[in-house]
Amino acid sequence: MLMQTHEARLSALREELARRELDGFVVPISDEHLSEYVGDYAQRLAWLTGFGGSAGGAVVLKNDAAMFVDGRYTIQVRDQVDGKLFDYKSVPKDTMGDWIAEKSAEGARIGFDPWLHTRGWAQAMEKRLAKAGVELVAVNGNPIDAVWADQPEPSPAKAFVQDDELAGRSSAEKRAEIADWLKSEKLDAVVISALDSVAWTLNIRGADVSHTPVALSYLMVQADGTADWFIAPDKVPGEVASALGNAVRIRPKDGFSDAFAALAGKRVAADPERSVYAIFDRLDEVGAQIALETDPAVLPKAIKTPAEQQGHRDAQARDGAAVSRFLHWLENEGPKGMVDELSAAARLHDFRKENSELVDLSFDTISGAGSNGALCHYRVSEETCLPLEPNSVYLVDSGGQYRDGTTDITRTVWIGPDAPPQEVKDRFTRVLKGHIALDTQTFPTGTPGSALDVLARQFLWQAGVDYAHGTGHGVGAFLGVHEGPQRIAKGRGGQAGTDQELMAGMILSNEPGYYKANEYGIRIENLVLVEQRQIEGMEGEWLGFETLTLVPIDRTLVDKAMLSEAEIAWWDDYHAKVREVLAPKLDGEQLAWLEKACQPL
């Protein structure tokens, strides 16, 4: 029998926990690969609670339940999750461990799925609960799966080859490099479970997760350069098997756990940040010697080959033309008051789909009108959708997946017909100045992203304002729109990626912003490529950024008097490049709009 209400689902889960002699269970947003975006089959938190955000978790006890989300989802969680069933808890002020310890009796047994959490999470939770006399228990089989009668099956989509010409390196070369690393570290094998790392290493892609072209699978690479690829056999067409050759053994995904027996007594690497608890548990169980090492695909994947760099430029030109068509349409239709957030996002998708090379969006479009634009990770829905009011600010953050590149762009536009207020122009221009400062900075090799973050914030700080997100994230090559290890963000607390030095070939976003609660949001985002720079009289090696995203920035929001001559020159040079690249792709009124939008400031 299908359970239509979240109350019924919660009750069914509690009955299942009682049957297993568990007093509670932790429900994350996760899959067995610790993916940022997960397939429908793994949307256990959404099924149980109704919460549709991309980060958060729940704890269910016998008589209590709570949702844990950070400040990005304070409003959304209250809209989507019934407060009669779940308490609302704010991370990081409230922690799951403290809440469970407070609500649980001594001797309670709290379950967790070892295929959905890192070992570090489990160890920290176990230590916290032990102080309260509460036991953390790894379950065998997720209890939600036992009561979710109509749970979708994992995607049956076929894997496909990412051509060597687009990748710039063959899978054999990549596996040989990993094998050389294993031998240098005196290791016998490495377990790779992050889906984008598997895809990159094998030069394959898939369609198993929305917006991220990956195939649900695991990989074990041996020190001799051979590999075992664990994937449902019917997902591997003949051309994929042929492209991989005999050195890659294709094995059923459901045999992954049993395959660990062959690693007994061997020195095996696994990434503690990218591999689930269950992998380490199996390695321990079979008697392997575990080496905690960063996934060897992570850094080389981030450093794009010349072929990937050129592919990204081509994808950006294609995508920039689509976004420019949308902005031309929006300039005409927005002031009429007939467009809302959902229809605007759909129209932008339509413009992208006009190009047959679009494979997918790279994430759900953030389409934020007025006060919704002030929610920096806003996700539009039927319940939250606002109209684009005349004389208001509209923020749209979107991207496309193309076989030769992944795009991500934010533009903030003024919906007329009247001129924007001075405060809005001031804030927009400060964001622009920070964007330009980061874009034009040169820096010595070895510089981490955290060292550059303040460049983008400085003009906002001068006005006593800031933004509560990072300034830049890594981007994949027809892979994840968010890719490590590089980031540009405040470096406090050893935040992941902020200590990673920026290296030539890496692609990052440059996206400072400003958000006035309950009124409007501003963000300007381009993607940039780290490149080597030559400076007269330089000592050592230096780097800078090539701007990849090419779409006009709304000039009506700029206070020219606040810009220096150098900043005006940047604006003029950038828009001259936009016109040069996009003009051949547009015609008629759209071309005329581009010409006007790209005039010197």
Automatic annotation (TrEMBL):
<dbReference type="InterPro" id="IPR000994">
    <property type="entry name" value="Pept_M24"/>
</dbReference>
<dbReference type="InterPro" id="IPR032416">
    <property type="entry name" value="Peptidase_M24_C"/>
</dbReference>
<dbReference type="GO" id="GO:0005737">
    <property type="term" value="C:cytoplasm"/>
</dbReference>
<keyword id="KW-0479">Metal-binding</keyword>
<feature type="domain" description="Peptidase M24">
    <location>
        <begin position="312"/>
        <end position="531"/>
    </location>
</feature>
<feature type="domain" description="Creatinase N-terminal">
    <location>
        <begin position="9"/>
        <end position="140"/>
    </location>
</feature>
<dbReference type="InterPro" id="IPR033740">
    <property type="entry name" value="Pept_M24B"/>
</dbReference>
<keyword id="KW-0378">Hydrolase</keyword>
<dbReference type="Pfam" id="PF16189">
    <property type="entry name" value="Creatinase_N_2"/>
</dbReference>
<dbReference type="Pfam" id="PF01321">
    <property type="entry name" value="Creatinase_N"/>
</dbReference>
<dbReference type="GO" id="GO:0070006">
    <property type="term" value="F:metalloaminopeptidase activity"/>
</dbReference>
<keyword id="KW-0031">Aminopeptidase</keyword>
<dbReference type="GO" id="GO:0046872">
    <property type="term" value="F:metal ion binding"/>
</dbReference>
<protein>
    <submittedName>
        <fullName>Aminopeptidase P family protein</fullName>
    </submittedName>
</protein>
<keyword id="KW-0645">Protease</keyword>
<dbReference type="Pfam" id="PF16188">
    <property type="entry name" value="Peptidase_M24_C"/>
</dbReference>
<feature type="domain" description="Peptidase M24 C-terminal">
    <location>
        <begin position="541"/>
        <end position="601"/>
    </location>
</feature>
<dbReference type="Pfam" id="PF00557">
    <property type="entry name" value="Peptidase_M24"/>
</dbReference>
<dbReference type="InterPro" id="IPR000587">
    <property type="entry name" value="Creatinase_N"/>
</dbReference>
<dbReference type="InterPro" id="IPR036005">
    <property type="entry name" value="Creatinase/aminopeptidase-like"/>
</dbReference>
<comment type="similarity">
    <text>Belongs to the peptidase M24B family.</text>
</comment>
<dbReference type="InterPro" id="IPR029149">
    <property type="entry name" value="Creatin/AminoP/Spt16_N"/>
</dbReference>
<dbReference type="InterPro" id="IPR050422">
    <property type="entry name" value="X-Pro_aminopeptidase_P"/>
</dbReference>
